[in-house]
């Protein structure tokens, strides 16, 4: 699995960015992650569309979209399902209709494989979360077992710590003092 300090892999994938007919899909590439505007990226993966734990996480990321935006951070959700399955799921599920971030479709499973997060039996993505800095370097990785949803507040807490570029003690939260050496 790729880890902290490594360059996020190159990719070009179709994503669902809305539900308006004819404007549902856009191509997102790894170039989107690298920028001079100091914009970070959080890419989070779920195993399968039309399941039970996954929409709770996606909806929670969406509820916190403003928190990520306030931190100059883009959100990208991803799975190995197709863009058509993503679009159908968004239309079908009340909590997913108004998503403010793209749902990336890794149907070839190549990005999940490059990241090392492809579950070996079903060939679906683990519940992985990557925080990527504006230079395209992975700064944090978290992977949950398929049955356990992640904690979005913890993703925000770690993002806050990374963005201070200082030493942050255990349980540190934004607004608290960092360590001086």
Automatic annotation (TrEMBL):
Gene3D superfamilies: Glutaredoxin. GO terms for molecular function: NADH-dependent peroxiredoxin activity; thioredoxin peroxidase activity. It catalyses: a hydroperoxide + NADH + H(+) = an alcohol + NAD(+) + H2O. Keywords: Antioxidant, Oxidoreductase, Peroxidase, Redox-active center. The keyword Oxidoreductase applies. It holds the Pfam family AhpC-TSA. One of its GO terms (biological process) is response to oxidative stress. InterPro entries: AhpC/TSA, Peroxiredoxin, Peroxiredoxin_AhpC-typ, Thioredoxin-like_sf, Thioredoxin_domain. Its EC number is 1.11.1.26. GO terms for cellular component: cytosol. Residues 2-164 form the Thioredoxin domain. It is an enzyme of class 1 (oxidoreductase). It comes from the Bacteria. The active site is at 54 (cysteine sulfenic acid (-soh) intermediate). Homodimer; disulfide-linked, upon oxidation. 5 homodimers assemble to form a ring-like decamer. This is Alkyl hydroperoxide reductase C. It comes from Mucilaginibacter pedocola.
